[in-house]
Amino acid sequence: MGGPLGQHQKWSHGYFSFPKLEGEIGPHMMFNGKEHLVWSLNNYLGLADHPEVRAADAQAAADYGMAYPMGARMMSGNSRHHEELEQELAAFVGKEDAFLLNYGYQGMVSIIDSLVNRNDVIVYDAESHACIIDGLRLHMGKRFVYQHNDIESCEKQLERATRLVEQTGGGILVITEGVFGMSGAQGKLKEIIALKDKYNFRLLVDDAHGFGTMGKTGAGTHEEQDCIEGTDVYFATFAKSMAGIGAFVAGDKQVIDYLRYNMRSQIFAKALPMPMVIGLKKRFELLKSNPELRTKLWEVAKALQKGLKERGFDIGITNTMVTPVFLKGDLYEATALTRDLRENYGIFCSIVIYPVIPKGLILLRLIPTAAHSMQDVEHTLYAYSEMGEKLKAGYYKENKMAVI
């Protein structure tokens, strides 16, 4: 009953699933009536509670209300503010044009649905985000998956795809992520693009976690890897570094114009409300004009990751700010150690278990932000050190303290 995650709802709801974090958005929030140090918010640059952002949001809501503009962009929901933000985003990520999307998840689903037909073949990374997988489910043609970040495997699937499109007359779309949100690994964009010397395909990159955090200016992982030109279609969400709602897709003008008139999730859905658009313009302005926010994010991330590795923790292959901590244990141990961290150390972080990761593993994902302090890092390292020793000693197996 309830599916692979929902089967636990009777004892997990409200604590491990659907928890309520209250108070001002930031590193320290209230949970279950107690203050906690929070490592679960994708508020990378700390913009969620920035005074200029709050002021811009409030003024735009006062000026326009939450309903304006009414209708979908194509019909009656367009505005100069939407178009100005699109132009600014396109220039920033090195593309000719961009299109605002009202949500990231449904945006990616609809991009994939629009870009390919039954004659086309999709080649995608095995650890692609759920929005990509759901987009693939709409595809009427063939799709081939390659092993995560494995270029040799990717090339094998491109060989298969090439043979197939020679028969169908279609094209090939390769999909990967700029930053994989669970592992923290960068997608191998530059190496995939190098395969264009041998194969004819276009590359779609989901850079939800990379936009605003990666690259010299924060333009994204394609800037970080110096392959802006080879990234044909660039997608990013506003829900991470921009601390908002919505997303955008950027690329050649011809491609973006095609998406404007063919993305069903935008044609048949209301445009982003004006307060959000104007608030996003302020967020974007701060992202570009305050590089010290990105510098602070990386200082916190590197200190946290260095400290965890020095204490013997497995943080996988992350080469971004996303900080996974992999532990061995069962469901009871996972919930027990998470509750121990929350109740006895005041640390709130996300817990990931099967079926998202293999059985027998526990993933505690830490999301550093520019708003965290070095004191936050030090307290977390102290707590994790004690938690790690307890796990090794079997404390959490013997004390099944997490079943509510």
* Mean pLDDT figure: 94
CATH-derived topology of the largest domain: Aspartate Aminotransferase, domain 2
Major β-sheet, in short? 7 strands, mixed
Estimate the helix proportion, in percent.
40-55%
List the secondary-structure elements in sequence, H or E: HHEEEHHEHEHEHEHEHEEHHHHEHEEEHH
Structural class: alpha/beta
- N-C termini distance: 19 Å
Keywords, separated by commas or semicolons:
404 residues; alpha/beta; Aspartate Aminotransferase, domain 1; Aspartate Aminotransferase, domain 2; 2 domains; 14 strands; 42% helix
What's the structural blueprint in terms of helices and strands?
Blueprint: H1 3-6, H2 9-12, E1 21-22, E2 28-31, E3 34-38, H3 51-64, H4 80-92, E4 97-101, H5 104-115, E5 121-125, H6 130-137, E6 142-146, H7 151-168, E7 172-177, H8 189-194, E8 202-206, H9 221-224, E9 233-237, E10 247-251, H10 253-260, H11 264-267, H12 274-289, H13 291-310, E11 323-328, H14 331-345, E12 347-348, E13 350-352, E14 361-366, H15 374-392, H16 395-398
Parallel strand pairs: 3-12, 5-6, 5-7, 7-8, 8-9
Antiparallel strand pairs: 1-2, 2-3, 4-10, 9-10, 11-14, 13-14
Helix pairs in contact: 3-12, 4-12, 5-6, 13-15, 14-15
